[in-house]
Amino acid sequence: FHAEGGGVVVATPSWEEAARCQWVIILDRGRVLAAGEPSGLAQTAQGHVWELATQSLTEETLTSLPWVASARRRGSLVRIISDQRVDSQAVSMALSQVVRGSEARPVEPTLEDAMILLMYSTRARGTATGHGVAGI
Hints:
Helix content is 29%, strand content 29%. It is of the alpha+beta class. The protein has a four-stranded antiparallel β-sheet. It has a four-stranded antiparallel β-sheet with strand order 5-6-4-7.
């Protein structure tokens, strides 16, 4: 079907499902915010995503840092998305002011990370209201 130019449109709130599509369109109230291959869109967040092993820091504490767009706990790890590209040394220095002995490491971004960064950037400009994903 695909070889003959056909395709299937999938609308989903699942980032895992969207990541399996060949092409993704990220929408905000019908307005296209981004479009492309999932791996390409994920790479737009390269240099923005970090993991931190900590039990003592809350998401609220981390998001109070001026350069943190999002912080999500997954077990003993916290995934941090920075609103700007920062290097390992800058992240470590900033985090050392909040908690001693914590070390963040850069990680490969996912489609979900890229969407969070995109929505954060859009909200910072005062234009975001909601989102959706369509895939082909």
